[in-house]
Write a structure and sequence with these properties.
Shape: globular
Order of helices and strands: EHHEHHHHHHHHHHHHHHH
Number of helices: 17
Helix content: over 70%
CATH architecture of the domain at 1-101: Alpha Horseshoe
Strand content: under 5%
CATH class of the domain at 1-101: Mainly Alpha
Number of strands: 2
CATH topology of the domain at 1-101: Serine Threonine Protein Phosphatase 5, Tetratricopeptide repeat
Structural class: mainly alpha
Largest sheet: 2 strands, antiparallel
Length: 320
C-alpha cells in the first residue's frame, strides 16, 4: 500500500523522537540512498534488525527538510520493525508519519498492526479514518476486507466490499479492482465481466486476476491461459508467481509449478524467497524427483538453519 505520492515538505514542527528528521551537513543524498537500498536488501534476506538500523541511518542523512523519499524510508522502517517483532516501534513510526502528514496508507497499516495486537477497536478506528482520507481507493477497501476476514470479521468486511462497489468505475484499474471484489464475494460472472473490460483496455495485470477467477471456478485450462499471458508480460512479481505456482501445485501440475517458482527466484527482488524455495522443494518431491528435492533442501538448510519443519523434511528425503 506504500505510495510515493507525498509533496515535498519543510520541517516546521518537531516530530516524535526525531523519526522523520536527520542531522549533519553537506550533501548526503548518496549515503541516504545506499542505506535505504541496504535496508531493503536486509528485509529480503530476513535480517530485520539490520534493516531497521539501515533505514534509521538513511534518515539520519537528511538535513533541513522532509520529502517523499524520507517518508518512503519511514514506511520501510515501520515494516522492518514489525517484521523484527518490534510491534510498538512500528506503531510509533506510523504515528509519527500520521502526525506529520495525515495519510490513508499510514492509518491503514497502523490499523493492521492494531489488529495483530488484538486491539480491534483501534484498528477499526484507523480503517475508518483511512477511508475518510481516501474514500475512492478500491485497494484500500480490499485491504480492510482482507484484514477483517483474517481476524474472523468476514461479515463486517463484506460491508466494506459492498461500499466499494457503490463507487463508479472510471479507469481500467477500477474495473480490475471491481473484478477482484466480485471474486471475493463469489460472484464470478460479474468478476469476469469487469476483468474483461480491464483486459480490453490493455491492463495486463487483469490477466492475473482473471486466472484466479477461473482457478476458483475449477477451470484449470482457462486459468493457466490467463496466468501465462501475465507471466509472458514480464510484470509479475514474486508473490504473484508464487501464487500461480501454488495454483498449479493444487492441480497436480508440479513441473509447471516449478517453472513459476524458478521464474520468481530469478527476479531482482524476491522478498519471499524462503517461502518460494520451500514450495519449490515440495513440488520436486511431489513430482517424484527426490534427488533434486534433497539437493535443494541441503541448500535451503544452509540458508535457513532455524526452520525445524524443513529439518524434519530433510530427514525424510535422506531416506528416499
Amino acid at each position: 500500500m506504500i505510495k510515493n505520492k507525498f509533496m515535498a515538505l519543510t520541517l516546521t514542527v518537531v516530530l516524535t523522537a526525531g523519526m522523520l528528521t536527520g542531522c549533519g551537513s553537506g550533501d548526503k543524498a548518496k549515503d541516504k540512498d545506499a542505506y535505504r537500498q541496504y535496508g531493503i536488501n536486509c528485509i529480503e534476506n530476513g535480517s530485520y534488525d539490520d534493516a531497521v538500523d539501515a533505514f534509521q541511518k538513511a534518515l539520519d542523512q537528511s538535513v533541513g527538510s522532509v520529502g517523499a523519499e524520507e517518508l518512503d524510508i519511514c514506511y520501510y522502517k515501520a515494516k522492518a520493525q514489525y517484521l523484527s517483532g518490534d510491534v510498538d516501534g512500528a506503531i510509533d513510526t506510523y504515528t509519527a508519519i500520521i502526525d506529520y502528514n495525515k495519510d490513508s496508507d499510514a492509518y491503514y497499516l497502523r490499523g493492521c498492526i492494531y489488529f495483530a495486537k488484538n486491539d480491534s477497536d483501534k484498528g477499526l478506528k484507523d480503517f475508518k479514518t483511512a477511508l475518510s482520507e481516501n474514500n475512492d481507493n478500491y485497494e484500500l477497501y480490499l485491504g480492510v476486507y482482507e484484514t477483517l476476514s483474517k481476524y474472523g470479521m468476514n461479515d463486517q468486511g463484506k460491508e466494506y466490499l459492498d461500499n466499494a462497489l457503490k463507487l463508479k468505475a472510471k479507469t481500467a484499474d477500477d474495473y480490475m479492482q471491481r473484478g477482484r471484489i466480485y471474486t471475493m464475494l463469489g460472484d464470478y460472472d460479474s468478476a469476469i465481466k469487469s476483468l474483461q473490460k480491464a483486459i480490453d483496455e490493455k491492463l495486463v495485470k487483469a490477466n492475473y486476476y482473471m486466472g484466479e477467477v477461473y482457478q476458483k471456478k475449477g477451470d484449470n485450462d482457462s486459468s493457466q491461459k490467463y496466468f501465462k499471458k501475465y507471466l509472458d508480460s514480464g510484470e509479475a512479481d514474486s508473490y504473484e508467481l508464487m501464487n500461480m505456482g501454488q495454483a498449479q501445485m493444487d492441480n497436480g501440475n508440479y513441473d509447471t509449478a516449478i517453472t513459476y517458482f524458478q521464474n520468481a527466484l530469478e527476479l531482482e527482488s524476491v522478498p519471499n524467497k524462503q517461502q518460494i524455495t520451500k514450495a519449490m522443494i515440495i513440488a520436486y518431491e511431489y513430482s517424484g524427483d527426490f534427488a533434486t528435492a534433497k539437493s535443494k533442501m541441503e541448500e535451503y538448510m544452509k540458508d535457513y538453519p532455524d526452520d525445524e519443519d524443513a529439518a524434519r523434511e530433510y530427514q525424510f528425503l535422506e531416506t528416499r
